[in-house]
């Protein structure tokens, strides 16, 4: 699975949790999940669990803490998928 | 150091069944999950636990910037609720060797939690508040305006003596006449509500020029403000 496939699936999972739909329309690897998309911290837990389900991986809280942007998600998931 | 968190219980994210099926297992300790299983008010208790963890994390992050947001590692212990049930609770949130004192106020509309590390400021004064945010107003601006207004009123200072900034994602508070490290601030907003909490070292206030921060002992050690639009 290449990075663009992962990003497409990441954005699809994020979409129902995004408060700022304008930011979602112009989403890129640099888009910040909390500050730009305004996904709140409780919703972020749901997002992480959905990533685990979608990609059949486990994501530790330490990994989540280091993720800020959509690109960070893609990179983390790519690494987990090996 | 102080942290606070507000949860709007009418927000779509907090409605029963809106969370991922593994949400509770990821976020709560075994003891917290047992309490949820036994509580007739589990839906509200779930967000009381959450707000307690968030508020303690905000305080912990200021004590150690390496603190990881790992909700299950912030263990909430509530004192027996008593006759007021879930409306006003005290307790403690433990994270490693740290213990944060906890106060939670809640009703059918919202939960507001306040956590502070008494060890970091053994003789501090606290003021916190929650209010509804008018529609169309940016919550991040509304919470800063509310905090500035109410802290100024609490201290008997002019609003322009209160300066709220940020260091990364952490809000900072500077009060004219007080050393920068004497005051700490936490801001929160969710759904219809904004909330803030402030901690000020009592000794710094005693030494402050009266015109800058005309605080006096007329205020108790803790003050709570609640305002809502009609």
Strand count, sense and barrel status of the largest sheet of chain B are:
5 strands, antiparallel
Question: Oligomeric form of this entry?
Answer: heterodimer
Classified in CATH, the superfamily of chain A is ACP-like
Low-confidence stretches of chain B: 211-220
Q: What sequence of helices (H) and strands (E) makes up the elements of chain B? A: EHHHEEEEEHEEEEHE
Rounded average pLDDT of chain B: 87
Q: End-to-end distance of chain B, in Å?
A: 33 Å
| Relative helix content of chain A | 55-70%
Total number of helices of chain A: 5
Run of helices and strands of chain A: HHHHH
Largest sheet of chain A: none
How is the largest sheet of chain B built, in terms of strand order?
1-5-4-3-2
Sum up the overall morphology of chain A in one term. Answer: globular
Fourth-tier CATH superfamily name of the largest domain in chain B: 4'-phosphopantetheinyl transferase domain
What pair of chains forms the biggest interface? A-B, 15 and 19 residues
Helix fraction bin of chain B: 25-40%
The number of domains of chain A is 1
CATH architecture of chain A: Orthogonal Bundle
Query: Would you report the number of β strands of chain A?
Result: 0
Cα(first) to Cα(last) distance of chain A is 10 Å
Walkthrough of the structure:
The complex is a heterodimer of chains A (82) and B (230). Chain A has 82 residues and is mostly helical. Chain A has one domain: Orthogonal Bundle (Non-ribosomal Peptide Synthetase Peptidyl Carrier Protein, Chain A), CATH 1.10.1200.10. The mean pLDDT of chain A is 94. Chain A is globular and about 35 Å long. Helices cover 60% and strands 0% of the residues of chain A. Chain A is built from five helices and no strands. Chain B is of the alpha+beta class. Chain B folds into two domains: 118 residues, Ribosomal Protein L22, Chain A (Alpha-Beta Complex); 106 residues. Helix content of chain B is 26%, strand content 34%. In chain B, the strands form three sheets. A five-stranded antiparallel beta sheet of chain B has the order 1-5-4-3-2, covered by helices on one side. In chain B, strands 9-10-6-11 form a four-stranded mixed beta sheet. In chain B, strand 3 and strand 4 form a beta hairpin. In chain B, helix 2 packs antiparallel against helix 3. The longest helix of chain B is centred in the first third of the chain and has 22 residues. In chain B, 43% of the residues are buried. About 4% of the residues of chain B have low confidence. At the A-B interface, helix 3 and helix 4 of A face helix 1 of B.
